[in-house]
Design a protein that fits this description.
This protein is mostly helical and about 270 residues long. The protein is about 75% helix and about 0% strand. The chain has helices at about 1-25, 25-50, 60-80, 80-90, 95-100, 105-140, 145-170, 175-180, 180-195, 205-215, 225-230, 235-265.
């Protein structure tokens, strides 16, 4: 009964997220085209770095192409707008209305984003995954798709999104102190993209730096799911990395609760 009540409470937020995705179709299409263009730009950059037979840190040019597009897909699906949304509500004062509702503050944002993710999966996930697998087949002459790795990738992807969500929620709560996070949010995105391996694979880093970055939560956002999809981890490494994701998810949930508990005492909205 509690579960059914929970679903009934937050289901409207999911529906709102789906309607929002459909309502702003032009914005969605333009953003998607821009991201895909950036992928192709990086493709030509890496093609200039690799020759046809070169293997660098375990990556061939074929691996880099798969890495680029699966990283783009993973980053797109795990992206959370919590920082911007929370900072905006704090700035304009609308957060006061959300706080008096008889529902969890972070769950409202989570289920609203899930509605958006459902739309993204239908429109983006299937075509890009199919395109990547067709590319691998054309290059190698045989199907590289592994259902076990794919299912593990899906689980890792879900964990990565939840880590990203609670990290961004915690970061968004900093608006209680700073009032405006626009510039800080852009800086955060650049740093996270680098530390998560979205810009450069962590395997290309010096050994000591790769080890350090793998300990931080950011590798769980992108690098871990992508490497699982590509079959670059052994079974024991997959278990270890996914347990690491679970650890960081628990840590981020706890962090969000602690930051909310202290930050809400400083509520001073600039709008209504």
């Amino acid at each position: 009964m509690k579960f059914r009540k929970f679903i009934r409470t937050y289901r409207p937020f999911t529906r709102a997220g789906m309607l929002e995705s459909v309502a702003y179709r032009a914005n969605f299409i333009c953003f998607l085209l821009g991201e895909i263009m950036s992928c192709f730009i990086m493709f030509f950059v890496w093609r200039a770095v690799f020759n046809e037979t070169q293997v660098f840190s375990g990556f061939t040019m074929e691996d880099m192409v798969v890495y680029l597009f699966i990283t783009f897909l993973t980053g797109y699906l795990t992206y959370s707008d919590g920082t911007y949304a929370i900072a905006t509500e704090i700035r304009d004062g609308s957060i006061a209305m959300r706080m008096i509702k008889p529902c969890s503050f972070d769950m409202c944002f989570l289920f609203q984003e899930l509605g958006n993710k459902i739309f993204n999966v239908l429109v983006i996930f299937v075509p890009i995954t199919a395109g990547v697998e067709i590319y691998r087949y054309v290059i190698t002459g045989e199907w590289q798709f592994n259902i076990a790795y794919f299912l593990l990738y899906i689980v890792s992807l879900i964990l990565a999104y939840l880590i990203s969500f609670y990290f961004n929620v915690s970061y968004g709560f900093m608006a209680f102190y700073l009032k405006n996070l626009w510039g800080a949010d852009i800086l955060k995105e650049v740093i996270v993209n680098f530390l998560s391996g979205a810009t450069i694979p962590l395997a290309f880093m010096p050994a000591f730096l790769e080890t350090a970055l793998n300990i931080l939560p950011f590798s769980s956002l992108s690098y871990t799911p992508v490497m699982i999809y590509m079959g670059m981890y052994s079974p024991s490494e997959i278990v270890y990395r996914m347990l690491f994701q679970v650890f960081w998810l628990a840590a981020m949930i706890l962090l969000s609760k602690l930051v909310w508990k202290h930050a809400v005492k400083r509520l001073c909205s600039q709008g209504g």
